Amino acid sequence: MARSSCSGGAGIRCGNPAPKVFSHPRCLEHDPGLGHPESPARLRVLLDRLFDEAVPVEMAAAAPLEPLLRVHPPEYLELLASIAGQGGGRIDADTVLNAASWEAALGAVGAALSAVSHAHDTGGAAFAAIRPPGHHALFAHAMGFCLLANAVIAVRHAQTLGRERVLIVDWDVHHGNGTQALVEDDPTIRFVSLHQWPAYPGTGAESERGVGNVFNVPRPAGLPAARYVADLRRAIHQATDRWPPEMILISAGYDSMAGDPLGGFTLESEDYAELVDSIQERCPGAPLALVLEGGYIPARVADGVMATLKALE
Question: What is the 8-class DSSP label of residue 138?
């Protein structure tokens, strides 16, 4: 069994290596169409920024089907592959595939799996710079720009590596309804979500507790950034009270930044750095894997990711 300690005191960093960044080239080829907010530019601008800042990016292998089948049924995977194989199609008003979308989804999961493996092997941190995002994807239904449950698939992979207790922290401005639905009956996983309320997808009330493993933090738009940070920190402390995680998976959405067209939160780059510091202080020794979720001003996404990576050094 993998082990880590988790306490409320100040954490001491033990010389962990710099965070590793993983991606996949097909993630840039998923294209929901002109004017869609989940555009390839979200990732392209980030990858350009990483190159400019001399941050190495490793291209991961595409995921095989086995880890996907731990979370999604084969009929659903076949449907996604079929839609892409026919040139694409619309699943709902928000969620659109083109011919490259299935391979992009496999690439995104592959990068998430690589991030988890790297964090597990090194005891450090890794970031999956990927799209399409995943935290709205349900057991057998795509929604909210999301095709596959990237974070949950990654967590199940972590558990196969011996990281039995995994904490998921979701700071995307929208509630990770897919993530919650897929883990809320599993006491080996705890899920903490800060999200705008009321807002899409309409889930994430504080009363939704799963089997005592769900900690939702629904908040209105327009509060001071410090309030959001403090409330999420408090929920993380509650989730980890006498429950030290052996790995942490962050659904890193940057649509919680001020000015995002799909959200009304007020976070800035430095707030993500503060959240990372807080998580590491609360749970010293727990490896961290992060997967990119939302964020719809590409340059702002890049700002947020860079601040996150610097805080992980």
Answer: -
Residues 6 or more apart whose CB falls under 8 angstroms from that of 157 comprise 67, 70, 113, 116, 117
- For residue 207, the cross-strand partners are none
pLDDT single digits (tens) 70-99:
999 999 999 999 999 999 999 999 999 999
Q: Going by C-beta distance under 8 Å and a sequence separation of 6 or more, which residues neighbour residue 277? A: 311
CA–CA gap between residue 122 and residue 114 (Å, rounded): 12
Distances (CA, A) of 222 to 150, 230, 253, 261: 29, 15, 17, 13
Handedness of CA 43, 126, 235, 143 (dihedral sign): positive
* Cβ contact 154:132 at 8 Å: no
- Residue the block writes with tokens 């974070």: 151
pLDDT digits (tens, 9 = 90+) for 178-233: 999 999 999 999 999 999 999 999 999 999 999 999 999 999 999 999 999 999 99
Say whether pTM exceeds 0.90. yes
- Number of Cβ atoms within 10 Å of the Cβ of 141: 16
Active-site option among 72, 118, 135, 136:
136
Q: Is 135 known to be catalytic?
A: no
Domain ranges of the chain: 20-312
pLDDT band at 17; cut points 50, 70, 90: confident
Q: Tens digits of per-residue pLDDT, 246-278?
A: 999 999 999 999 999 999 999 999 999 999 999
Structure tokens at 37: 């907010």
- CATH annotation of 20-312: 3.40.800.20
Give 35's contacts (C-beta < 8 A, 6+ positions apart).
none
Distance from C-alpha of 218 to C-alpha of 21, rounded to nearest angstrom: 30
